[in-house]
Amino acid sequence: MPSSSDRRADGAAWEDLARATLERHGLRMLATNAHCRFGELDLVMADGATVVFVEVRYRRGGGFGGGLASVDARKRRRIALAAQAFLAARPPLARRPCRFDVVAVSGSADAPRIDWVRNAFSLDDL
């Protein structure tokens, strides 16, 4: 079983891959691994004027629905609460539109598959 530091390093590598992919599509990094009392935001990016909160999920295979299915209602609520805390601490960003994306990464480091879902959920879904 991999140690927690191995899992953190692997998670950081998948987040870096997701970030690079999103940057190639024109998004700009605002923050990574932003912590608050409600949890952690993997990536906070800007897509034009829109603040994008990105949850990155890695699954080696597609069993149990893969990475996209792992962002369940409880996880979405935690992300939304963390996003609200992030915005509350940054009033200029709080006035901008925002959205919630999920990047699901699967496969191996040699052949990763990246599924980016824009507007994966909204506050109305919670």
Automatic annotation (TrEMBL):
NCBIfam families xrefs: PRK12497.1-3 (NF009150), YraN family protein (TIGR00252)
A family per Pfam: UPF0102
Superkingdom, taxonomy of origin: Bacteria
GO-annotated molecular function: endonuclease activity; nucleic acid binding
Alphabetic keyword roster: Endonuclease, Hydrolase, Nuclease
Family according to the record: Belongs to the UPF0102 family.
UniProt entry tagged with the keyword Cell inner membrane: no
Name listed for the protein in its UniProt record: UPF0102 protein HNQ58_000412
Gene3D superfamilies linked: 3.40.1350.10
Higher taxonomy: Bacteria, Pseudomonadati, Pseudomonadota, Gammaproteobacteria, Lysobacterales
HAMAP family: UPF0102
